[in-house]
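Translate sequence into structure tokens.
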Amino acid sequence: MGFNDILKKSFIQTATEGMSIGNAVLALAITCLIAIYIFFIYRVMTRKAFYSKSFNISLVALSLITAAIILSIQSSVVISLGMVGALSIVRFRTAVKEPMDLVFLFWSISVGIICGAGLFVIAIFASLLITAVVLALQNVPSAKESMLLIVDSANIDGEEEIMETVEKYSTHSKVKSRNMDAKSLNMVIEVKIKEGAECIREMNRLEGMRHVSMVSQEGEATF
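Result follows.
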């Protein structure tokens, strides 16, 4: 028996004998069930936000594809080397805008890997644990969002009075921008405020006040 025969028997035939069609079908079936579970969890969690059905369907397909790849790698060393070469040239350029979408992507891939390895109990338990943790944290009340207070005043010396009024109603405030010329003062102030309407009414009574508006803060707050 030559070296080539020993290599073929040790690496190729042994790996193929360890993988039966029944085990592969069982792994894909359990992967499909867990992926459908992820499909419904994603639908429930995004009911108040932007929901993409195509992205949700891709989560199910991604789990099945990953499981199939893992099963193929287990069946043959030659196939595993081919998979490494094929996947190394794949480039994903689609931007993931929502952080939770990224979580579901990794969740789907992980389910495919774990089920492809035959560790079904871990995949089921991890999926249930992830669901419980994410739903529990989602129900934790968040801090009050900051707002942007936009002020347009004809009194260029009225900044001190404006800030005193803001601090009267706001727990935190920070001047984001300040524009001034010979006839006007424009300010954008980031605030956390409870009685926004009352604050705006009082600011409109200030000397030289021409316009006051309050808009929601997009992005991260500075406090």
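Note: The chain is about 60% helix and 15% strand.
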